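Appendix B. Raw example, untouched.
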Amino acid sequence: MKKIATLLLCILLIGLLAVPAFAADTTVFTITPDKSTVAPGETVTFTVTVNGTTPCKSLGIMLSYDQNVFGNITGTCTMSGLVAVFNPSNGFAIMFQNPTAPNGTVGTFSLTAKDGICPSTVSVTGTPSVKNGSETIPSTVSGTSVSISGVHAWDDGKVTVEATCTSEGTTTFTCSKCGEIKTTSIAATGHSHDDGVVTQEPTCSVAGVKTFTCSKCGDTYTEEISMVPHTEGAGVVTTQPTCTEAGVKTYSCTVCGTSIKTEEVPATGHTEGEGVVTTQPTCTTAGVKTYKCTVCDETTKTEEVPATGHAYDNGVVTTEPSCEEDGVKTFTCQNDKAHTKTEIIARTGHSYDNGVVTTEPGCETKGVMTFTCQNDKTHTYTKDIDPIGHDYDDGVITTEPGCETKGVKTFTCRNDASHTYTEEVAAKGHTAGAEMEVTKEPTCTEAGVMSGKCAACGEILKDEAIPALGHKYVEDTEQYVAPTCTEKGSKVFVCENDPTHVYTEEVPATGHSYGDWLKNDNDTHKQTCSECGDVATESHKWNSGMVTKQPTCAEKGEKTFTCTVVSCSHTKTEEIPMTEHEYDKAHTDNEDGKTHDSECECGAVKENVEHKLKEVVIKASTTTVKGTAKKVCEDCGYESEEYELPLKSDDLDDVPKTGDITNQLVLTASAMIAMMAAFCAVVLKRKFVK
């Protein structure tokens, strides 16, 4: 009881010593979902809260989640500050007007589970950043996880282990979406034993035997036939037991001395001694403690000695932040200087002045105002100043108008005399004069003209046409020329008003009068004119052809083409090349683990074709047990020997993320627990020695 009480006291001291390590966190972010399980296509909303004890000028949290599972992130920042924004790619960012200890809801964001995903559990967390000017405030994030209630797409299953009389078989099912496998058992068929045969008659000292045989697998079992009863003695220990091996007690018949039976004398078992640390722990690797039997010195068990964990210093700024670039702070482990980690120091940002006019605006041109960053004078940006616009006068007539010509009025800008524009002044117009007079007589082909003039300038104001007399043509029959099949004829016409006006009309050639098209030779057909006997030929007009003999991989085919002119209908044929072999009729494994032979339906064989190997998982790996798989050829069914798969990787990242000191605290607590346990062991050992 004193030993137990001492151990409980040690554990209590360890718990009290571990508390200050967690008390160092002064700002804690918490991410809380509105539901713990979502279906594919369903949306889950997360609330981000903060609990801070130290005033700060700015805080932020960058969100992290599996984008293969979740998508369509939306959100809003509800905590007030000088700047309070939610950015789907960066998360939440808040800057305060004055230092304050932030508490309450930062904001919310929503994620939608993608369609077609399998059941899984997804972590949602973030990377915090809390600062008061250049000072970094310690902060942590309490992340969360959400279960996805997807559905596996199992195939119809494949019998991977056949059932026998005594052992179960196995059917393996594979998910077509994620490759996960599951198995179901096939019940053993059971033996079919006969009625048995006496294979040994019983005696006084030996029992008889009746043997039963399975008709399916040949398995046998026996039943004892009672022997003539012995007179059993008290029994003698004939083999003494040891730590690991049982002994034997033998009973004999007092009448015939025959050994009747034996009984097992239980092994005495090991006497376990105190353990010894055989492998010392380091910052990142556990040690080993070994226990041995005090009687036979055999190792009875081993225990893991926890790793000591990192002990990082307060860090050194290794890269100063600027207006546009983040800085870096580096922390070094005091247990092992080779172990370091870094944190980002947020950039300072620009601090621009109220701007200076560097280019004055004009009537039509923009001006420029330049703003300069007070942190770094090389950082500037500009804004345009709108033009002031024109201020035109009432205008002056600079060109007087005439009867038909327009005048010009010019307007000048009062801001800049070089800027002008003009407007037209309407013409005054003509003044009609005396009566109109004939100025041109009409002819056969041209109209005459009657004109009126302006009384002011004498310019003709308008003309009126006197219609042309027109032609009066009559055919001259004496000059008629008759047409033929290929030559044109002509008619001549003369104007009665003016005999110098003559024109000729063509009489079209009558054209050939051809009969039906008839075959001429293998390339052409012909037709003959009934009027002049002219013969015309043209090439056959072949259709797209018809396959009259299908090609195979052993013999060429044939295609027949027919002339589409019905009265000709001549035909020709063309060869169709032989087809390629299709090596898919049969596959023969070559037993070399690499190739097989493929056979075409015509009998041709293609040798040494490489296997198309696909991995088939027999047993999936877990994080602690390796699975197994084999390679199977998709064509011939060849199967390789089974091999091991690597362990499934843990989703948790063992390396602490920037700003996340949870692992550091856990490792520190573990180291303190190990030290206190060692101290307690020494105290107890000394107590019991005394």
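End of appendix B.
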